[in-house]
UniProtKB/TrEMBL annotation:
It comes from the Bacteria. Keywords: Cell membrane, Ion transport, Magnesium, Membrane, Transmembrane, Transmembrane helix, Transport. It holds the Pfam family CorA. The gene is corA. This is Magnesium transport protein CorA. It comes from Allocatelliglobosispora scoriae.
Length: 332
């Protein structure tokens, strides 16, 4: 069976990585023997592949089922002695210009199984590369010495920091959108505004549900080691800042959308007034022509030498007068 799904397997003792190679099957025994812990990194496993890990590390079947599927709500749960994290990963998608189909944020998932002697990270999707998290954490043996919770913190910290980056990029898109709606540039269509709002909602679904479980785990003094709690508190602060930004962006997008719809309504009213003004000018000419088309016997103008020229002049004067009146009133 291919082991491409297993992207990392190492044992850490007193903050240092053991140099001896280990497999995921015997790593737990080595970690127990040396009073350390195992960190397994897994990428997009199948059910059969992950079942091998689950059997060896005693993972709960409900958590295992979620580990091989995607699109779960962010949460933190306990299954016996194992703490289970579901975290959404995000990445901003660069685009030259916002359109009705632009993808602004790409999401994925990272799941963490945290036991006394092991931590297992499972990644789904492109966002949320954990290789840099491992390499950076290995440069901090003082943090790694705290055990599996140091890995959980490092992963949460990296993902929440990525939320702030995506939020900052969203703000840039909002500034450009606002400039196009209220500035001199060609205004954005309502569909473009709505597309950005949909992408913001996707981002919100990835971030906002994590607030309550993150706050709860910080308050659980029996579960979270004292030395790690303040670090998780910092992660929670960044998470709250991101949620506050998303809420503000959502309100701003609603305002921009309402303003754009109001602009469309005003433009339509202006078009209707122009149509009505030109119709009135044409109606005046039609009325004059209709009078002289009734074929009455006693119409002196019909036998007047300058009758035709006079009627043409009258029609022109009426048209010019109406045009000037509509221009002064702002209808044309």
């Amino acid at each position: 069976m291919s082991s491409q799904w297993l992207v990392g397997c190492a044992v850490y003792v007193d903050g240092q990585r053991l140099e001896q190679p280990v497999t995921y099957l015997d790593a737990l025994d080595v970690a127990t023997e040396h009073d350390g812990f195992v960190w397994l990194g897994i990428r997009d496993p199948t059910a059969d592949e992950f079942s091998l890990v689950a059997d060896r590390y005693g993972l709960h079947e409900l958590a295992v089922e979620q580990a091989v599927t995607t699109r779960h709500r962010p949460k933190i749960e306990r299954f016996g002695d194992v703490t289970f994290f579901v975290l959404r990963t995000t990445r901003y998608v660069e685009h030259a210009q916002l359109t009705e189909t632009s993808e602004v944020v790409e999401t994925g998932e990272v799941l963490i199984f945290l036991g006394e002697r092991f931590v297992i990270t499972v990644r789904h999707g492109e966002p949320g590369d954990l290789a840099t998290v491992r390499s950076d954490l290995e440069k901090r043996p003082d943090l790694l010495a705290w055990g599996p919770w140091s890995v959980a913190h490092a992963v949460c910290d990296r993902l929440v920091d990525s939320y702030l980056v995506v939020a900052q990029e969203f703000e840039t898109d909002l500034d450009e959108l606002e400039e196009r709606v209220f500035g001199n540039a060609p205004a954005s269509r309502a569909a473009q505004i709505y597309q950005l709002k949909r992408e913001l909602m996707e981002f919100k679904r990835a971030v906002a549900p994590l607030q309550r479980p993150m706050a709860a785990i910080i308050e659980d003094r029996a579960l979270l080691p004292k030395e790690v709690r303040k670090y998780f508190g910092d992660v929670n602060d960044h998470l709250l800042r991101t949620v506050e930004r998303i809420t503000a962006y959502d309100e701003l997008l609603n305002s921009i959308l309402q303003a754009r719809l109001a602009q469309v309504s005003v433009d339509q009213n202006n078009d209707m007034r122009k149509i009505a003004a030109w119709a009135a000018i044409a109606a005046a000419q039609t009325a004059i022509a209709g009078v002289y088309g009734m074929n009455f016997d006693f119409m002196p103008e019909l036998h007047w030498r300058y009758g035709y020229a006079g009627v043409m002049a009258l029609m022109a004067l009426v048209a010019v007068g109406l045009y000037r009146a509509f221009r002064r009133s702002g209808w044309l």
